[in-house]
Write a structure and sequence with these properties.
By secondary structure, the protein is mostly beta strands. Strands 2-1-6-7 form a four-stranded antiparallel β-sheet, with no helix packed on it. Strands 3-4 form a two-stranded antiparallel ribbon. It is globular and about 35 Å long. The N and C termini lie far apart (about 55 Å).
Length: about 130
């Protein structure tokens, strides 16, 4: 029995997809959409918006100036090759109900790192 499920929006208009945690290691979450909306309303105390990330050539949502600044830092990190804001929801069965969460409030961004890029490789003269 699989204990943890992952739901994500595929970005192609296909709605939410769902799979077990063990099967999603190769899903390109940075190509998808956020699994929830970034709401704004008159009088709110935080600032929501979208940041254009050069890394993925797409918009990344944020819900505070701190999150926006964090996205900007990740976008400038050469090791980051994928960046998305809250691209999936993790769910599991609690004692009395199904429990879900998106990425943590301290760091809501998913990022894919690459420790090797082709342009960083220099062949030794021979």
């Amino acid at each position: 029995m699989d204990l943890v499920d992952v739901e994500w929006a595929d970005g192609e208009g296909g709605g939410l997809r769902k799979s077990v945690l063990e099967a999603v290691s190769r899903v390109p979450f940075e190509s998808g959409l956020p699994v929830r909306r970034f709401t704004s309303y008159r009088g709110q105390r935080h600032f929501t918006g979208w940041y254009w990330a050069a890394t993925t050539e797409s918009l990344v949502g944020f819900e505070s100036w701190l999150e926006r600044d964090r996205a900007m830092l990740l976008d400038h990190d050469r090791r980051v090759v994928g960046l998305a804001s809250q691209p999936f929801r993790v769910t599991w069965q609690g004692a009395t109900r199904r429990i879900y969460t998106t990425l943590g409030t301290q760091d809501p961004f998913y990022r894919r790192f690459c420790l090797y890029r082709e342009r960083d490789f220099h062949e030794a003269p021979g």
